[in-house]
Amino acid sequence: MITKRIIPCLDVKDGRVVKGVNFSGLRDVASPVELARRYSQQGADELVFYDITASAEGRGLFTDILTETARSVFIPLTVGGGINSEKDFERVLACGADKVSVNSGAIRDPRLIERAARLYGSQCVVLSVDVKNTPQGYRVFAKGFREDTGLDAIEWLKRGVDMGAGEIVVNSIDTDGVKRGFDLKLLERVLASVNVPVIASGGAGSVQDFIDLFTRLPQVDAGLAASIFHFGEVSIPLLKKQMAASGIPVRLQEDI
């Protein structure tokens, strides 16, 4: 049975890990290198590293910090932020990333997914989508919470997978940082529409939220969270032990 992955997310701004609620009120957390090393040692299955203002500021991702982070961990690293071309994919992969997450860049140029999948393989291309439930249905937002693209989220995810995305991250803006549980209704819609691994993001506030996620939606491949790990509210070793006790397949440190 395929084990469920636990993935801490490092949102990086000006070289520091930050975290807010609904993409606002950002608080300084720590050095991304130090935090990545700590999570790797604690048994995280993967890490996600987002340069959260690269797209909005129209610049490339901080490659120096990324390179140092990649050297410090020995688990898969997915990197996103300011990914707008094949050259951006190449640059990030050269810094040590295992997978590249594309969001706003794919919205501007959907064929970027197709070209990157052809060059680097679908397993390398992660389509990350920020979704909000609106009166018009689930819509895709770009640049964090700042721009409604008008795209239907489910249709956009289906299109992205058809073009070659090998994995998707579904971040619910409505639940991001609120710590009241993952957006199970949204995830259920997504799972019924795509046939690639789905990572749930936004809303984790407790161990029980992860157990509920994987128990109610066993097709979900991974749970991603930030603040509950950053601020010590939930430890990864304890989370995994309680998941295993609940019958959820998970990689424990003694299995390594």
Mean pLDDT across all amino acids: 89
Strand order of the largest sheet: 1-4-5-6-7-10-11-12
Number of helices: 10
Radius of gyration: 17 Å
- Succession of helices and strands: EEEHEHEHEHHEEEHEHEHEHH
Main β sheet profile:
8 strands, parallel, barrel
Number of E strands: 12
What's the end-to-end separation, in Å?
Answer: 16 Å
The portion of residues forming beta strands comes to 25-35%
Overall geometry comes to globular
CATH architecture: Alpha-Beta Barrel
Give the class-level CATH name.
Alpha Beta
The domain tally reads: 1
Q: What is the CATH topology assignment?
A: TIM Barrel
CATH evolutionary superfamily? Aldolase class I
| Class computed from helices, strands and strand pairing | alpha/beta
Helix content: 25-40%
Show unreliable segments.
21-25, 55-59
Structure overview:
The protein is of the alpha/beta class. The chain has one domain: Alpha-Beta Barrel (TIM Barrel). Helices cover 34% and strands 28% of the residues. The protein is built from 10 helices and 12 strands. The protein has helices at 32-42, 63-72, 86-94, 104-108, 111-120, 153-162, 184-191, 207-216, 227-230, 236-245; strands at residues 5-13, 16-21, 24-30, 47-51, 77-80, 99-102, 125-134, 137-142, 147-152, 167-172, 198-201, 222-225. An 8-stranded parallel β-barrel has the order 1-4-5-6-7-10-11-12, surrounded by 6 helices. Strand 10 (167-172), helix 7 (184-191) and strand 11 form a beta-alpha-beta unit. Helix 1 packs parallel to helix 2 (63-72). The longest helix has 11 residues, at 32-42.
